[in-house]
# Entry
Amino acid sequence: MPRTSLKHAAPLGLALLGVVVTAFSACSGSSGGDSGGGTVDAAQDRVHVAPPEFDSGEDNIDAGPLCVNGVSVDGAYPKRPTAVELGATAPNFSWDGLDENGKALPIKLADYFEPCAAKSRLLVVRVSAAWCGTCRYGLLHTADSKQASFGKRLRFLDLLVADEDGNPAAASDLAAHRARIDSPDRVAADPNVSFVFMPPPTLLLPLYVLIDTRTMGIRNILSDPDPAELAYRLGGELALLDGQAQPAYPSQTLVDGQWSANQWALISEIKTPGAPPADPTNEKADDVAAAAFGKALFSDQTLSPSNMVSCATCHQFAKGTADGLAQSQGVGHVDRNAPAIALASFARWQFWDGRADSQWAQATGPFEAAKEFGSTRLFVAHQIYANYKPQYEAVWTKYPLPDLTDMLRFPSSGMPGVPAYDAMATADKDAITRILVNVGKSIAAYERTFRVQPTKLDTYATGDFAALSGDEKKGLGTALKVGCFQCHWGPRLTDDAFHNTRFPTGKQDGTADPGRTAVVTNVLSGQLISSSVYSDAPAAHSGITHLVAGGPLVGAFRTPTLRGITESAPYGHGGNLTAFADVVKLYGNAGLMPGDPRATGTSEPCLPKFDTTVQPTLFPFLQLMTANATAP
# Structure
């Protein structure tokens, strides 16, 4: 039968190795077990699953016959197994959800049980995450399955396991997830991840769990199937349940002779980023004069008392807008690698841990960081007054500078927590903070002018199939096959979410870096956030409302863009990985081993995992990831 060159033969692997479903984390879980009676027809690459037995005896949790005189017994459900596995009965999970009309209601698997039906239907439980790039195609093409010849015998249940930032899904996320589906049925939040799988073999999102509604037996498990594979499995399962011959494998046209429709959809979204999206929280975001002022500030070392540090110290165009050091060097040795910022204007969150929710707030942070600028907002304000008063007031006409020569009102240095600052009048503290904010907004306006140059991959994505060599296409294929595009997708090749990859710490004391979970409380209560009085559109930013104090993302860091990685080594939040080979090897091992003190938390099981025979094929693809960042 026709196959794509990058087909995931997930069901075959499951039947051969045996997979048990257990609760784990935001992607998948792990254990081993019997395959539940599944057998393999190798010639057809098919999984045949024996239906679970009904237990109508006294041991049944829902005792008594499940279908009496053609009528289903209320509350009846097959006996629950101790673990969920291929061929066994799915436990009667329950979730908060939305019905077919978007109305809130509790959802449980028993809602789909129909033991008296004349013919089986398939419940298609689709597991996905809002951050997942490979999940989007299936959601947008649900109607294709419903319009197939067997479409009326399908019932879809979409389980959302995580929001766009990587937090466990909540009921409040469901309306947005439902809007991602072109023909939605029921959707539910599954923060505990009821249907999850872990190697062997590796299963990637989205997962499709196919359940016979007459028995609630798990018939098949598909991992990121292409459209032809999905259609074949859906139709094939129904044919087997009806005792009919399996359908022929659907024909499909492969783009450039190798890419299925869902793969090409991901590739074709890789376009050179142009102007960043609007930032309503910064009224001068795209003001030419503000950008020119910000450019001067970006390279000004006098904003640090040491006269040795500027923004440009850690963000150099010659080094991909990073600094080429493992951990950056300001007035002290910091604990993290400087991220490349050529495309920072597009990001929902700033810094590795997302402790700033706007680019202008990010720009203010290093000034008062003890190991970076080692400065204070009062010191910065005095430097602006002494060196930039005309330029500042020409841009920020609404905020003329106060008379900073009055050193009794405005001490030479200080910030919140420093007695000299805290003793100031409230109005004077606000005026100084406003200067710091406007400096940050000016620098952000300059950074918004940064641009990256097109790559060979961008050209290929437009349909110029000669743009890539055979090895480069092979590397792209490997990236698609092993799951890199779950997180690295879209024009910038990032999901902007937070994930725990168990990369080694860069902290000077060698202890693990807690990442996102350590900063969420401060983000919620921060003074310079997009919902504060210093924002020019405080209602425009909704991300803060979704945060949970403390945060669940222990050891998680924001997914970096792949653009510019050829120029911005070393890699990782700790900067310990000096070459592509180091990064690929660590991913292949699912990060540092559990118990290694250089990382904390649990590595996400949906991370790409590949052995040393596969890793070298990725390198030609990674070499395509240039940026050649420029600015006016």
In short: Residues 426-447 form the longest helix (22 residues).
